[in-house]
Amino acid sequence: MSLNQLEMFELPNPCVGVCESGPRGYCRGCLRSRDERFQWYEKPEAERANILKLIAGRQKRRELFLRQQAQLEKDEQEGRTEPKQNQLDLL
């Protein structure tokens, strides 16, 4: 989005109503940091747009991690690997 486009459209607040911080400080619902959540409306539109891009990257990494965890669990159930500690709380 160019700056001209940012001025035309209000950027949505990415909150999904699941407000719980994980161990790394990111909200488990919207994947924003504490500062990104609490200061959302005070931040300039360009910074909000950047936060939305960061969230998209975080979502992709979380989805990849969850797919990898699911595959590990499937492999464990089928006896193909040694059991691993579940690390879902790292998100």
UniProtKB/TrEMBL annotation:
Among Pfam families, the record links this protein to:
DUF1289
Residue spans of biased composition, Basic and acidic residues class: 72-83
Q: Where is this region: Disordered?
A: 72-91
Q: Provide the protein name.
A: DUF1289 domain-containing protein
Organism (species)? Aliidiomarina iranensis
